[in-house]
Write a structure and sequence with these properties.
- The protein is of the alpha+beta class and 254 residues long.
- The protein is 49% helix and 9% strand.
- It is built from 11 helices and 8 strands.
- The strands form 3 sheets. Strands 1-2-4-3 form a 4-stranded mixed sheet, with helices on both faces.
- Helix 3 runs antiparallel to helix 5.
Amino acid sequence: MNNVEISLSDDAHLYFGQNFRYGEWDGEDCARDNDWSGFGFVLGSGGDPLPIPGDYLTGHQCAHLADVSNGQAAMRLMEEAAPGKAAEWNGLLAYDYGDSAAREAATRIGDSLAGYPLLDDEDLSERESENAARALVDSCDVPEDVAADVVSALSDDGQGLCTDCHGWDIDHIMSNLGYRECAECDKWLATTFDEPLHYDCAEYYAEGDCECISVMVDGYRHGNHTVTMSDVRETLRGCEHCYPIVHPYGKNVA
């Protein structure tokens, strides 16, 4: 096989003619390494070699996910049409240009993407939803068990799922799902009460060694009830030790 002349497609000649990093011999080496008789690129919607993105993100998340979806779909289609005749090469999808089945499959994929930029709409939609759910959990502190519901509500609300293209307004969505932000740390709590507090956040308002807030919080925790800022204020107002500290000039004085 090493002595066989490797045929290069027109797009491969064009690519290597414009690229200062790789030469035609690199394509020929790839073909020989894979026991191919030719080397060509599967083309994307813009007529350039179809990318096979890695984990490193460049540009907007939505464009990256579309490239990932198209790359994976194209690799699957090539493998179905011509097993072993396509492979990732330096971040691009290459194939055996000398194999007729691989050449025909690559042409179909290129023609399809030239007319419509996606090979699998459903796959991209799933990837966008999964990515948005991860972003909601990691960046917005949305509980994992409701992240999918928030993603669905964002779509129904007309808000895009790309974190680089849009800022999300999820307060009303979380409210409809029965969540409010903690008045202290801004993380979500499953409650319909205004100004709720996590138990640890509520204990932050304890004054010195006084245990009035801790006793109140322990009681709420034992009963699995939500603590609110109103509860904290009323507890401090009713404490002989804390009242003069919190309201040194009287509770009605600003």
